[in-house]
Design goal:
By secondary structure, the protein is mostly helical. The chain contains 19 helices and 6 strands. 60% of the residues lie in helices and 4% in strands.
């Protein structure tokens, strides 16, 4: 069978490079969107009297039959037809004859492919948002279940000050909440309809892109036909959003891996999210967290790969742009699988509260409390810091901790130390003294969690509306 674009080529035109140029192995993912876009295009062509209503009805019935074949797996894919778009068009010709050729009136594969990718990313944005919200709920519930548990907070991976475990968990909640905000903002640029740009310069047919946009649920049209077919900004922005989600997922994974080690002993993974060793019977490895951490690299690679593809391309369409798909599809699958498994892993996490509390009370995490005590007595903070620093140094040299000191020993380091200074050497008291905005005190934590729950409710309202609109326009 001759190529659909093969009029000016010899019988061998393009065949020697078919395997290299074909995208069918991966762009068949777009079949639903291609059918939906083609149905809307056919309706518009009939509405504008560019083709007859009878031809449009025949085309739409044929596309509906093709959709059923693709759904049940009986569709006869033909690798020689390069991509999913030509496969569908070729199958339509087999079903309804030469009328199928009218579907491509006033349309190019350039704007057709761009439309499919816009619809694909629009839907995957909503799916990713839904999974992010599930992860947020898991984090919020984990925080609620362990209010009052004190653990060491770290800087430079060294014990710094005591914090509430729930406060630490909520830090990740807000990271993922910002990821949702970024997806919401990205959606405004995904929500642009390119069909009607044709190959690059528009068309002389009296088309109505606004009608197609309304049929497909798009909020606005591109203003420039050359921009419409060459724009990949929305994909790059989406990949950046996915990459940042994986940054946050990877950071969370790193802490879970550390905390589950015997050196920390703060948590234990459920068996469902762990594996063993083929040689060491005692091992329980946090493989799911490690893989989540490791898979971030492939998502970053998809972003960097597409940035490299588009950075030097002249307007408008170039076949280089075919490289926008595989990496994007892979990144979407990777991120969504990570979000699903992490929500389950957090929901089954065992928190070892006593180990955390013991770690928070040991060492010199409460040294800052003593410095603050002196500052409240009117001692300049730098002077207080120096005095407590000498105290800590002497304790380290003598193998003692702050809890081993009495009021008389404290007073040797500064005369403002009094008996009540011993009361600040307490992890729970230290945590609950942090009542400043953003602080780790329980009273602030509870306020924070109320705000988080309201934020999640608002997010769900927005994304439920968006996903509902998307589903209505899917085959």
């Amino acid at each position: 069978m001759r190529k659909m674009w093969g009029g000016r080529f010899s019988s061998e035109g393009g065949r020697k490079a078919e395997g290299f140029t074909s995208s069918l192995s991966f762009d068949r993912v777009l079949w639903r969107y291609d059918l939906v876009g083609s149905v809307a295009h056919a309706k518009m062509l009939a509405r504008q009297r560019i083709i007859t209503q009878e031809d449009a009805d025949l085309i739409i019935r044929g596309l509906d039959e093709i959709g059923k074949e693709l759904e049940d797996g009986s569709f006869p894919f033909r690798p020689d037809l390069e991509d999913i778009h030509l496969n569908i068009e070729g199958r339509l010709a087999e079903k309804i004859g030469r009328v199928a050729g009218r579907l491509h009136t006033a349309r190019s594969r350039n704007d057709q492919v761009a439309l499919d990718m816009h619809m694909y990313i629009r839907e995957e944005t909503s799916i990713t948002a839904s999974l992010l919200m599930q992860l947020e709920w898991a984090l919020l519930q984990l925080a609620k279940d362990h209010i009052g548990v004190v653990m060491p907070g770290y800087t430079h991976l060294q014990r710094a000050q005591p914090v509430l475990f729930s406060h630490h968990v909520m830090a990740y909640f807000w990271m993922f909440a910002r990821d949702l905000d970024r997806l919401k903002d990205c959606l405004s640029r995904v929500d642009m309809m390119p069909l009607g740009a044709s190959a690059l310069s528009g068309t002389g047919f009296p088309i109505d892109p606004g009608y197609v946009a309304a049929e497909l649920g798009f909020g606005r049209l591109y203003e420039n036909s050359m921009d419409a077919v060459s724009d990949r900004d929305y994909i790059l922005e989406f990949l950046f959003c996915l990459s940042l989600i994986m940054v946050h997922t990877s950071r969370l994974a790193e802490e879970l891996v550390l905390w589950s080690s015997q050196e920390f002993g703060f948590i234990e993974m459920d068996d469902a999210y762990s594996t063993g060793s083929s040689i060491m019977p005692q091992k329980k490895n946090p493989d799911v967290a490690e893989l989540g951490r490791g898979k971030s690299g492939r998502v970053f690679g998809s972003l960097l790969g597409l940035l490299t593809v588009v950075k030097g391309l002249p307007l408008t369409y170039n076949s280089d742009m075919q490289e926008d798909k595989e990496g994007t599809f892979n990144a979407v699958n990777t991120v969504q699988s990570c979000l699903r498994v992490f929500a389950g892993m957090l929901s089954t996490l065992k928190v070892k509260e006593e180990a955390m509390a013991q770690a928070a009370g040991g060492g010199f995490l409460l040294a800052t409390e003593l410095a603050d005590y002196l500052a409240r007595k009117g001692v300049p903070f730098r002077e207080a810091h120096h005095a407590v620093g000498r105290l800590v140094g002497d304790c380290i040299a003598s193998g003692r901790s702050l809890g081993d000191l009495d009021a008389q020993e404290l007073s040797r380091y500064h005369p403002q130390f009094d008996l009540d200074a011993l009361g600040v050497i307490n992890p729970v008291a230290a945590v609950n003294s942090r009542t400043s905005p953003m602080g780790t005190a329980e009273v602030r934590l509870r306020e924070q969690m109320e705000t988080a729950a309201k934020t999640l409710d608002d997010q769900e309202v927005f994304w439920l509306h968006k996903s509902g609109a998307s589903e209505e326009n899917m085959v």
